[in-house]
Amino acid sequence: MSRPGEYEIHEGKSQFPLSLNDKICSCGAWQISGVPCRHSIRAMIHAKLDPHKFVSSWFSVKTYRRIYNFSINPVPNRDQWPVYDNLPSIKPPRMKRGVGRPSRNRRREEGEEQPGKRSKTVKCQKCGCFGHNSRTCKGGLTGKGMRKTDEPIVTKKS
C-alpha cells in the first residue's frame, strides 16, 4: 500500500499499480470487464474489503430485472408482413477492391511487350547453334534448329 486506496501488486517480475478509489488497475482487465481483476482482489483482501462491492452495477440482479422487465411482442410470419409498393430498391455497394492480394505487376496494354522476358530462341554456348543450350548439347543442332538454318554444323572439340 502506498497510500489509502492505492496499491502496487508484485506478480513475478511484473508490478501492477492500482487504485481501489478509482477502480483502475494497470493490467486493464478491471476497466474492460467491470469485474475486479486478481490484482485488485488481492489488494481488497489486504484492506479487508468485500470484492463483491467493487463489481460494476451492470452485473447486479436489480439491473438484470430492470432491463428484462418489459415483454417482447411476437413477430408475425414473413407472409403476414405489410406490402409496400413505393419503396426504392436498395442495391449493394459497388466493390472497390478485388479479393486477394493485389498483383505486383501493372497490367500492360495490347501490343506492349513484357519487360525482362527471355528471347524464345536459345543459343548453345558450346557449339554456338540455336535451338538448344549447353546442358542438352549433343554436338549439333536439334531437329528444330536444322529446319531453321541451312548453314553447316560446326562443332568444337574440348
From TrEMBL:
Keyword tags: Metal-binding, Zinc, Zinc-finger
Record Pfam families: SWIM (PF04434)
Residues covered by region (Disordered): 84-122, 138-158
Basic and acidic residues biased stretches: 107-116, 147-158
SMART domains per the UniProt record, alphabetical: ZnF_PMZ
Composition-biased stretches (Basic residues): 93-106
Ranges where the SWIM-type domain occurs: 16-48
Keyword Protease: no
UniProt keyword Metal-binding, yes or no: yes
Record PANTHER family: POLYPROTEIN, PUTATIVE-RELATED, SWIM-TYPE DOMAIN-CONTAINING PROTEIN
Protein name: SWIM-type domain-containing protein
Provenance organism: Spinacia oleracea (Spinach)
Annotated gene: LOC130463283
